[in-house]
Write a structure and sequence with these properties.
Blueprint lengths: L8 H42 L3 E8 L2 E8 L2 E2 L5 E3 L10 H18 L8 E6 L5 E6 L11 E4 L2 H4 L2 H12 L17 E3 H8 L7
Antiparallel strand pairs: 1-2, 2-3, 2-4, 5-6, 5-8, 6-7
């Protein structure tokens, strides 16, 4: 009598299960690839947006030359600075001052490792005797010819802190003709990061 060996059903079921899983995975590879590609793409895009470097540009707005901030494709809702004085002669036209100061702002950010954080605007006198607005950071707290942004005209040089106050309000879209509290409130330093955030419509800071 020939006795046929019993099939090992447990092993057979295991083989069938493994084959089923492999077939399912093979059929689902495109969707799995798309899933992971989408997840990693979104993360990369988000990181680029968060770390977008701020650039300063000189443009015309309603007939005036103004300095605006740009992050990626987003432009500040209000200008940071406007240029209309001819006090320094025909050579220093509003357009030229706008371009020079915008470039100096970009240089200040580049020297600060591409970051706005810990970069402040303040005022002071430089070697040539002029009163200026300059960009300082943790390692340099005084104005010099190297970090100056703009020279103040004579009337503004008498009260440079008031100029900083007006810059802060102008970035929020407020009128330049503001009332100053005689008890204080005029800043000595203005955070460039907060100034840019305000120009983009953020109310955080100060």
């Amino acid at each position: 009598m020939n006795i046929r060996p019993r099939p090992n059903w447990h092993l057979w079921n295991l083989v069938v299960a493994i084959l089923s899983i492999l077939v399912t995975l093979m059929l689902g590879l495109p969707s799995l690839y798309e899933f992971f590609e989408e997840r990693f793409f979104l993360q990369a895009t988000s990181s680029q947006t968060i770390g977008e470097t701020t650039k300063f540009k000189c443009v015309q707005d309603k007939g005036n030359w103004v300095t605006i901030a740009q992050q990626g494709k987003v432009i500040s809702a209000t200008p940071l600075l406007t240029w209309n004085t001819m006090e320094f002669g025909d050579h220093w036209t509003p357009e030229k001052r706008c371009n020079v100061v915008s470039d100096r702002l970009n240089q200040a950010v580049a020297m600060n490792e591409g970051r706005l954080r810990d970069l402040d605007l303040t005022s002071g006198k430089v070697q040539n005797g002029y009163t200026v607005i300059c960009a300082v950071n943790l390692s340099q707290k005084n104005c010099s010819l190297e970090n100056m942004l703009l020279t103040l005209k004579r009337e503004n040089a008498q009260n440079p802190s008031l100029v900083l106050f007006k810059i802060a309000n102008f970035a929020e879209g407020k009128t330049e003709r503001v009332t100053i509290n005689e008890n204080g409130g005029i800043p000595q330093y203005i955070s460039l990061e907060t100034l840019v955030d305000r120009s983009f419509g953020s109310n955080e800071g100060w």
